[in-house]
Design goal:
This protein is 0% helix and 57% strand. By secondary structure, the protein is mainly beta. The chain has one domain: Beta Barrel (OB fold (Dihydrolipoamide Acetyltransferase, E2P)).
């Protein structure tokens, strides 16, 4: 399975159960702008909201989508992209360690 890295994608939809999120990534190639949509599937609630901008990596999945008709009446089929076990860059942030939890290596008596 391929690993994909998505940068600065916008959350466009959040699943009501809290485990799925649809994001849209915008790119440019040969002077043309295009958008790629992914569905991210988390194992635990993620806390994301519509409009959030995220960077993520995970295992890429793809399947053939439902057929649809374009403006000219041509039958088209798209590919639905998903990311399994996604990891948000910078999340979860490392917890701040307590100052007093650090062990001291001082052999002297305190008094």
């Amino acid at each position: 399975m391929a690993i994909v890295k998505i940068k600065d994608a916008t959350v466009t939809r959040v699943n009501s159960k809290g485990y799925g999120v649809k994001v849209t990534e915008s790119n440019e190639s040969n002077g043309k702008r295009y958008k790629t949509q992914y569905t991210l599937w988390f194992k635990e609630p993620h806390g994301l909201s519509e409009g959030d901008v995220v960077s993520v990596d995970g295992f890429l999945g793809a399947k053939v989508g439902e057929p649809w008709e374009d403006r000219d009446g041509n039958q088209r089929v798209s590919v639905e992209l998903s990311v399994n076990n996604p990891k948000l860059d910078g999340y979860p942030k490392a917890p701040v360690e307590e100052q007093w939890a650090a062990p001291t290596n001082n052999d002297e008596t305190p008094f």
